[in-house]
Design goal:
single chain; about 400 residues; alpha/beta; seven-stranded mixed beta sheet; six-stranded mixed beta sheet; 11 helices; globular
Length: about 400
């Protein structure tokens, strides 16, 4: 067994069960890509078993903090079974669920979502890549699903020195599906859609918009970075008068139109703009337009804390323009999925945007990832998605 010896004082994060060891903490030792290594303190004390990644700044991702634990096929089957059992207890109102959420489920670098009888997996780190066949076999056995599609096409693979890989790992067939959640029907494609096909993490936030619409009766809703229109369906199902959706993807907007029809909603109550959101918001402000509810769900601006400063400016500008467009008594649902932007910083960004726009807002609710995207107390980075529901005070 190869040993990674840490520099003095660098053992504290592992002792707190944080699963990452950065390259700057390593005094000596190494291994092959994905190889299981023993991590020790500068004094030789056992700290963790982990997967070694020679190219990444995250040099080791911990599998276990138990010295007696063997990292083998039985370990992966047990850890997967525990993650799947947790979701079974949640009573999720959807046929689309996240079954494995990386570090939060003890499997760093692995994402597994289920759409009906089909699994979609992302292997984003060397450790899970090395155990891919074992993991795939265990998933098929534990879920009874006949098909498993791989979407290992994330930017994090490059940081690990791994090529992008997509395609069927087990089984084959059509990649188009119909997601069902909260009684709504949403079409998606696991081969070409964002992430594993859809933003399952926003399931609860879509329901929140539906409920606010039912309660407050929004006449005009603006859905920015709308993708395939899940928030638009929620708003119209809640009784909104009209939803304007903006996205830079024509195919996504076409799916958004289809999703309205799937749910028996009136397409005349919706308009779709294949356009840049920033430019559109500024034009709306210049035209004196206003909206009763606005959804801001932009892509990831800051994957790490190193990008936080520039990302903060981008988030602030978006939110400032949105506040200017919001009617008194209107509601803004604003999100950040950037791991480099923490909850407190995001709050400050939104508050500063409101101040610059001359708007006073009341925070009605804080939003985050759905319950099948859990956080753990030892891994705060798992709270990548954060959101605020802000009402503009009259």
């Amino acid at each position: 067994m190869k040993i990674i010896r840490l520099k003095p004082g660098k053992e504290r994060s592992l002792q707190r069960r944080h699963p990452w060891v950065f390259d700057g903490a390593v005094a000596r030792g190494g291994g092959d890509a994905g190889e299981t290594v023993r991590v020790e303190s500068a004094e030789g004390q056992f700290l963790a078993w982990g997967a070694y990644s020679p190219n990444s700044r995250i040099r080791v991702r911990a599998w276990s903090f138990d010295e007696a634990q063997r990292i083998d096929a039985a370990f992966f089957r047990h850890t997967l079974a525990r993650a799947i059992a947790l979701r079974a207890r949640m009573g999720i109102d959807s046929n689309g669920q996240r079954l494995v959420h990386g570090e939060s489920d003890g499997l760093p670098g692995l994402i597994v979502d289920r759409y009906g009888d089909t699994l979609v997996a992302q292997f984003t780190a060397c450790g899970v890549e090395r155990w891919k066949a074992v993991i795939a076999d265990a998933l098929m056995e534990l879920t009874g699903c006949p098909r498993l599609y791989e979407r290992s096409d994330t930017s994090s693979r490059k940081l690990e020195g791994l090529p992008e890989v997509t395609g069927w790992l087990r089984g084959s067939g059509d990649t188009s599906f119909e997601l069902q959640e909260h009684g709504w029907r949403l079409g998606l494609d696991i081969a070409h859609g964002h992430k594993t096909g859809y933003y399952l993490d926003q399931r609860d936030s879509r329901l929140a918009l539906y409920r606010y619409t039912k309660r407050l009766g929004f006449a005009q809703v603006l859905n920015c970075f709308s993708y395939t229109g899940g928030f638009g369906v929620a708003a119209l199902a809640g009784g909104a008068g009209h939803v304007t959706s903006i996205d830079s993807s024509g195919p996504a907007l076409e799916q958004a139109r289809s999703n309205l029809l799937l749910n028996g909603l009136d397409p005349s109550q919706a308009s779709f703009m294949d356009a840049d959101v920033n430019t559109s918001l500024r034009r709306f402000v210049a035209e004196g337009r206003s909206f009763d509810a606005i959804v801001l769900d932009p892509p990831k601006f800051a994957p790490t804390a190193a990008h936080a400063e520039r990302a903060s400016r981008a988030y602030k500008d978006l939110n400032r323009q949105a506040f200017k467009l919001l009617t008194p008594g209107g509601v803004l649902l604003t999100f950040s999925c950037s791991g480099g932007i923490g909850v407190e910083l995001f709050h400050k960004i939104v508050a500063s945007a409101g101040l610059d726009a001359g708007v006073d807002g009341a925070i009605l609710q804080r939003l985050g990832g759905a319950c099948d995207h859990p956080m753990t107390i030892s891994f705060p980075e798992g709270e990548y998605l954060k959101g605020l529901v802000v009402m503009r005070k009259p």
